[in-house]
Amino acid sequence: MDKKEFIQKQKSDLERSIWTPEMFARYSFELSPDVPVFTAEQKAEIQWINHIIFSASGGYLHGSLKMYKDLKDSEKLRNDPTGRNIWKALNNGISKHELAIQGQFNQLPIFARCDLMSVLSTGKHSPLFQIAEVEGDKTHGMGYYDGFIHKNSLDITGDINGQTFSEAVKMCVGDEVVVLLVGDKELFYLPEMKSLLLPEAISQGLNLVVATEDQLELTQDEEMPIEAGGVKARWMVNIPELNPDGLLVKPEVGKNLYNLYADGSISCLIPPNRFLGNKALMGIVSNGLNDPKLDRWIEGYFKWELGPMRHFFPITIMVTKENVAQVIEILQSQPGDWVIKKTVSSGAKGVSLGDDTAQRTRMMAELSAAPFNYIMQKKVEQSTRSFWHADPTTMDLLYSPMYTRTELYTQFGDPLTVGVTARASKAVHVQHDAIQIPVKY
Description:
This is Circularly permuted ATPgrasp domain-containing protein. With 441 residues, the chain is of the alpha+beta class. It contains 15 helices and 17 strands. Helix 7 packs across helix 9. The two termini are 22 Å apart.
């Protein structure tokens, strides 16, 4: 099958799922027949990053969980000036309904997504990748991987990199029913989960139910306390931020869904620990202003992995009331060297790369007024790679250089899976002019 025939097959497959006439304008993206091959050096770095983010006892997720739990349990730690700043930053954006269940259990998510930038080498020991962000509380991407990227990899190479999300979930729940809940605030992702993930999950023997908040019911069955699609369950893939207007999934009296999670009545593969998706964590670990008090505060949580993590993190600064004047001075004197990011955001939302004057001015004003809402991150010189790609409307094949975002889904042991999103813009995220492709080692 040549390139043109392959992208035509991709288009036909998508038109039978997420690219219906009603949804095409909103969910379309460019097509590509490419599967980039990663070098042994790139594979080794990806394995290392997987270890320091997920597997290591003093790694990013383990250390963050322990740090948050200690702060939650100790008023003395929360009253320490550095501890107070960390506590305030990590609770930013968390609803009052979810605060009580943050760090409820010492449980890692089944996976955490790590977005990596490919960077130009600056020397023998410089990294090939830099970590742009880490999300340990979301399901985004599961549908596109199982229902599109992995299928393309099988068609082209006969194999996939790692395993499918459906396989990973099935290893946890076996033959039991498991519910993936799409919250009212993230209904944009519903077609991805229903049209791409669900058919693949069923074909792989996973008893998955995809439900919205209004489709979920809480039962009086202590063994199977939730119901969706006419079936009862005790397993959930995730608990998104719930809409309080739905009385946290409809109870007028009795326990709501958060209560059921807190008392262990339901098991959740991706716990609702919102702080594990907060970009302030990167600023805390990076300590971009070399604050000795912050270093002393965190070194016990991240132990031997602090140096390796900083090797792969761009210099990142958690903005606080104490350092905001210094941060503003740096941004004004080096305007092209820093990216400003909202600490609670996804995709390219809440990001200023520095070439967007109006947005930059607005975000700097917001940063001055509410510093804990932001981090600043040192720009890295990203490398490009050329890919074949085609607009799904014209189907004209082009070969162009693009910036890449390598999506590493971390888990214990080897990575769950790895793929690439690529775009001509440095603001790489899934957009109409982006491609989503598998990779091969």
